Amino acid sequence: MTGAKVLLMMGCPGVPIQTSIALYLSHKLTNLGFDVTVAGTGAATKLLKVSDSDSYYAKKLTDLDKTLEDIIEKKTDFDICFAFMHNDSGVTYAATVSALSQAKMYSIVFGGSAEELAQTIEFECEKIVTQDTHNPMRLKNKLDKVMGEIAR
Description:
6 strands, alpha/beta, single chain, globular
C-alpha cells in the first residue's frame, strides 16, 4: 500500500502520549512511502507545531474540522485513517470518518478508560488499545506491528 493516503486524526490533546505517537507515526509512515496528513483540533495542532516547528515529522498538518468538511464535500478522501481517541468525542469523530470515507479505519484508543471506551466503538475498525497515558512505548510497539502489516 505504499503511496496510499493516510489520515492521522487527533482530537483533544488531554492525554500526553497522543502528541508523541502522532509525530512518531507520521514520520514512520512517511518514510515508508505513504502520503500522510495529520489533522487535529486547534490545541492538538498547536502542540504539534511547537513540538515539530520545522515540520520534519508532520509534513502536512491541517485542521480536523476542515478535513472532515473536505471529506463530506468529496474534495478529498483517504485510504487509511488512524483515529486517536481517549474520550467519547474521539469516538464520534472516528465514527463520522468511518461513515463518510472509504478509508480502512484504525482506532488508537488510549488512556485510563481505554478498555471501556474501546467497547463503545460500533463501526468497523481495527482497535489498538492501551491503558497508557504517559509512557508511549507499549502503544509504539503495537503500532510498529500495524505499520509492518500495512507496508507489505
